[in-house]
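User: For my dataset I need records formatted as: sequence, then structure tokens, nothing else. Please produce one.
Assistant:
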Amino acid sequence: MITAGIDVGSASTKTVIFDAGEGRVLASRVVVTGAHAQKSARMSFEQALEGAGVRQDDVAFILGTGYGRFNIPFASRQITEIACHARGAHFLFPGTRTVIDIGGQDSKAIRVSEKGDAVDFVMNDKCAAGTGRFLEVIARVLEIGVDRLGELSERSSRRVEISSMCAVFAESEVVSLIASGVAPEDIADGVHRAVIDRVISLAKRISIIGDVTLTGGVVKNSGVLRALKDRIDAPVNVPEDPQIIGALGAAIRASAYA
């Protein structure tokens, strides 16, 4: 039986085509969400179908998730991304008991049961602190692409503290640091640590226990990943593609509804 999970996030839309019988991913695709979530969902889904070599009629059930899950008119059902991140992380790493997800507009920590169910969670979705958006703001000030921020921070030789967690105030703080002659690489490193300080503070509200699995596109940033590993005193799992874990969990859960 073939299922599909579509995760419509604020920054990107992800689709996973899953063979439930064999328990394996047939294909996955990620596209920019942009201003038209429905169009992005359809594009991601069609590209994933092509990658898997199957037709839509071959898919037994399509489960939508993410903040834009109700913008997938062809989905069979919708489900919260909390449940999907828990299930996807547990599928890849059965020892997972905590999921830390850092997305474009929010970050969250999820407590996971031995069966892969979400049993508790906490989310930051009210401000940019601890999210990809925070990094985008700082990258713009440093006049580099956000995809280069991690690489830049790896050259840091001086510890710089970013005290402002509000993106607006942090932007002003970074401008002042630049004017004071602080090197961009040191600022980038400080920004990554500031983001992770916020994320860890959030996660501690439900306690960080057992194996920790990291999800979300921001985890691809080497500076974020390094700062996370430095702060977590537990085994840390990093999926090959942390961006698709929500869609993977949705595709896995879809088999229960088919």
